[in-house]
Amino acid sequence: MAPGGYFGQALVVDAGTGTASTLPLPDELLRAYLGGAGLGAWLMHRLAPPGAGPLTAQAPLAFVFSPLVGTPLTTSAKFAVVAKSPLTGLLNDALSSSHFAISGKLTGYDAIVVRGACQRPSALLVDGDGVRLIEASDLWGLPAAEAEKRLRSRLGRGWRAAVIGPAGERCVRYATISHAGRHAGRGGLGAVLGAKRLKAVAVRAATKVAPADPEAVLAAARDLRARSFGPATAKYRELGTLANLLAFNAISALPSRNFQAATFAGAPRLAAEELAQLRTVARNSCASCTIGCEHIYSARGGKQMRVEYENVFALGPMCGVSDPDAVLAASARCDELGLDTISAGGTIAWAMECAERGLIDAPWLRFGDAGALLRALSEIGTGEGVGELLAEGSRRAAELVGGGSAEFAPHVKGLELPGYEPRTMHAMALGLAVNSRGADHNRSGAYEADLSGDHDRLAGGAAHAAAAIETEDRAAIMDSLILCKFLRGVFREPFGEWAALLSAVTGWDVDGAELRRTARRIVLAKRVFNIREGWRPSDDWLPQRLLAEPVTTGSGRVATLTPERLRGMIGAYYTGRGLDAQGRPGEADLADLRLR
Amino acid sequence: MGTPKAALEWHGSTLLRRTAAILARVTEGPVVVVRAPGQDLPALPPGTEVVDDPREGLGPVQGLAAGLAALGGRAEIAFVSSTDMPFLHPAFVRRVLRAAQEGADVALPVARGYPQPLAAAYRTVLAAVAERLVAEQRLRPAFLFEQCAVTRLDESALRADPVLAALDPALDSVVNVNSLADYQAARERPAPEVTVQRFGTLADGHRGPHQVRAATVAAAADATGLALDGHVVAALNGDQITRDGETPLAAGDTVFFLAADAGG
After folding, report:
1. Sign (positive/negative) of CA torsion A45, A47, A49, A54?
2. Tens of pLDDT, residues A316-326
3. Cβ of A452 and B260 within 8 Å?
4. If DSSP states are collapsed to H, E and C, what string results for A348-366?
5. What is the structure's pLDDT at A46?
6. One domain for residues B56 and B179
7. Does residue A278 register a pLDDT over 80?
8. Which domain holds residue A464?
9. A136 and A162 in contact (C-beta within 8 Å)?
10. Collapsing DSSP states into helix, strand and coil, what is residue B264?
11. CATH value at residue B235
12. With a CB-CB cutoff of 8 Å, which residues 426-455 of chain A face chain B?
């Protein structure tokens, strides 16, 4: 019998034949990897053929649920999509949330894995009647939201769907998978689904799963709910993540014009403080969430847009665009196409710099030109003009263009950088460099250390490495339980409190120390997968621009991140993680991963 | 005065803590406090080093020798300050350090009528010279100055720095407190004028900038209706982030208050 909160099995579907099998997930394995991103990493070790290209039929893609899904614990309605990334060629997990998580888990599986590829555009259905593929040619070419709406209308009550947009169909390497307007955004997993000619995966609840101690779970849920209304989440409730923009600009941490500066003169026009007064029309939240971080803004033409810091950063300052209507329109275009806004903005910003340097023949593509931004997005969606090149992401595009453009291609391991300036946030610089997913602010929250006041954010060293490890470990657990990271500030003793939640749900006698070991295992499992797939030590690094071009802070202090400093922090990180000088784990750690 | 100068209260902090924090801000390097053997010190900013003066009562050259020696190999130049200058301004420290960096062994301000050997910059290699002078019982700073290249900075030279001229026009940086009356007079002066901005949810419709008088970050927060709790951090002049309410402020400083959670 599976522990509370689990079914103890994964469903493995062959999209080529429409058949499915069940993969048992023993208690000990679930305890070792929990769910979400952790269990997804193990599933990829187990099911992904070594060296298989992410866009090939044999590449698996997993929707992974978690023990907390379906409980009344706030923010727990989340799921992970896990596969090898077409952008990085390495392991990628992208999280999304809401009803798909609950319905997907209550199909009776802790994960749904898809392998193979359909002959024609299809949708995969999973419910109590089993697995089936249905024709979806009529949905092909539609924006994700419209396709989701039509599919649910066709299927009837109770169905929830994760859907790709036109970018996923075209295998743009940073295409998203969407559900209810939220996106499993990073790493291009929409392209993996598109390569399987799957427009959608739809799920319908068929069963129930009980926690081991329902009363304890309910009590914890009440407590967390109360805490979620406190000051730790005020930023998310009141302004949303866009509150970062003006603050980051003030502390020279807002990358702009493809990381040529760390401030942006147009930032006030895009700030949450301004937009909230003029344009907020609603707040929204995911299923089972009491925070309600989503802020819906009105855009020109009557459209309504969810706005986050990262999409405004990437499509605004990163591209030099300060017109809020243009940035909102660009965000809406990314949603329609199913594009990761960070990678889209980063790749376009790189292309803008290439155009200014005469490296690509697109004289119209200029920093600050809102029309050019929108045109570039449309061309990415259609594959016309520069679109075919930019659909590859900045790393591959730079390899094709040459001319030194790789030095200012804003990525790590192929994944475009988020809006945290590494030169003025050295702990974050390390987190971005070493993370398995690539340049990522959700798997490494090392910016917390930079903004804690405990460390000099311009003088990274061993303390920054320790802080980066700690935040990476916390993210590994939160992404595997799964709980939303916007809740993290309410936990006073995170590992102990998370262990108590997990114990109440599963019945396991878990403590904080065990969860710390679990976090380390999950982080290493991802790294080991990447090593298997061709990761090299030189991949744990930052773009040359960030190591060669200083920026100046508001106080006049010159912020430099030298290769020597970064190398020193990486060395301290490897040591702290128990890795060798080449970033590889030893035999004892490998044995602990339970991969053999 | 009844209380050791180092421990004198200063706007909710102490004179010593203020001095150490101002120097840490300017130099980015190690800050060393030289104390008499066994002397109790008030709380210091994180990272501040303390060394014991091996011989008590031998005056400033002995203190110089101990402090410069403690910095040897880690810094070429040190700004040396007594603990009793409550208006020491970062711009003053920068101006003096710059003079030393231009080649002098010692950059010695001459301000408000006197040379200021305890508000001056020294090359750390002078530790050996100072040690020898102590051994020879030549305990006045003037003996040290005889043995090295000294750049004297009179008031016009100091004020030639436009930032210093704007922010500390009276050169109050070198005002020290030698008596209870001095201390009380200093304490009665208004706190420095600083600029405050609040971001995100902290702005509450009033982002600023606001001009307030505040000697510490906590006072700046208080002046704008904020509590510097675990959910709020301050960025001083857009640079260092702190949660330490005792972080001293000087005229012309800007304090940004931000939400501590930067998740995006």
Report:
1. negative
2. 999 999 999 99
3. yes
4. HHHHHHHHHCCCCCCCCCC
5. 98
6. yes
7. no
8. 422-592
9. no
10. coil
11. 3.10.20.30
12. 441, 445, 447-448, 450-454
Q: How far apart are CA A467 and CA A445, in angstroms?
A: 9
Specify if B264 maps to a domain: no
Is the Cβ pair B241, A453 closer than 8 Å?
Answer: yes
Residues 97-136 of B with CB under 8 A from A: none
In B, minimum Cα distance to A450 occurs at: B241
One-letter amino acid of A381: G
Q: Does A252 touch chain B (CB under 8 A)?
A: yes
Give yes or no: residues B134 and B248 share one domain: no
CA distance B125 to chain A (A): 26
Count of residues for chain B? 264
Q: What is the pLDDT of residue A518?
A: 98
Q: What mean pLDDT is reported for chain A?
A: 96
Is A486 close to B229, i.e. CB distance below 8 A? no
A94: enclosing H helix or E strand: strand A91-97
Report the amino acid identity of residue A188.
G
Cβ contacts below 8 Å, chain A against chain B, sum to 108
Same domain, B223 and B178: no
Distance CA A254, CA A586 (A): 38
Per-residue pLDDT of chain B (264 residues; tens, 9 = 90+): 678 888 999 999 999 999 999 999 998 889 999 999 889 999 999 889 999 988 877 889 999 999 999 999 999 999 999 999 999 999 999 999 999 999 999 999 999 999 999 999 999 999 999 999 999 999 999 999 999 999 999 999 999 999 999 999 999 999 999 999 999 999 999 999 999 999 998 988 788 899 999 999 999 999 999 988 888 999 999 988 999 999 999 999 999 999 988 888
Count of C-beta atoms within a 10 Å radius of residue A193: 30
Peptide bond preceding B209: is omega within 30 degrees of 0, i.e. cis?
A: yes
Do residue B177 and residue B57 come from a single domain?
Answer: yes
Contact A310/B at CB under 8 A? yes
Q: What is the 8-class DSSP label of residue B124?
A: T
DSSP string of A239-251, one letter each residue: T-GGGHHHHHHHT
B179 and B63: one domain?
Answer: yes
Question: What confidence score (pLDDT) does residue A301 get?
Answer: 78
Long-range contacts of A225-233 (CB under 8 A, 24+ apart): A225/A74, A225/A290, A227/A490, A228/A74, A228/A75, A228/A290, A228/A291, A228/A487, A228/A490, A229/A290, A230/A490, A231/B229, A231/B231, A232/A489, A232/A490, A232/B231, A232/B261, A233/A291, A233/A293, A233/A486, A233/A487, A233/A489, A233/A490
Contact A273, A83 (CB under 8 A): no
CB atoms within 10 A of CB A358: 9
What pTM, to 2 d.p., does this model score? 0.94
Rounded Cα gap, residues B42 and B60, in angstroms: 21
d(CA B162, CA B171) in angstroms, rounded, equals: 13
Q: Kindly determine whether residue A232 and residue B261, on different chains, have CB atoms separated by under 8 Å.
A: yes
Dihedral pair phi/psi, residue A121, rounded to 5° = -55, 130
Which one of A318, A342, A451 makes the best mutation probe of the B interface by having the most chain B beta carbons within 10 Å? A451
The answer to whether A241 contacts B197, with C-beta atoms less than 8 Å apart, is: no
The count of residues in chain A is: 596
Residues B215 and B119 in one domain: no
Contact call for A418 and B264, based on CB within 8 A? yes
Phi and psi at B114, nearest 5°, equal -140, 150
> Do A513 and A67 form a contact (C-beta atoms < 8 A)?
no
**Which helix (H) or strand (E) segment is A39 a member of?**
helix A36-47
Alpha-carbon distance of A262 to A450, in angstroms, equals 15
Return d(Cα A492, Cα A360) in angstroms, integer: 51
How many CA atoms, within 13 angstroms, populate the side-chain half-sphere of residue A384? Answer: 6
What ipTM describes this predicted complex?
A: 0.90
Q: Nearest-CA neighbor of A555 among B83, B257, B127, B256?
A: B256
Q: Can you give the CATH number for the domain in which A588 is found?
A: 1.10.599.10
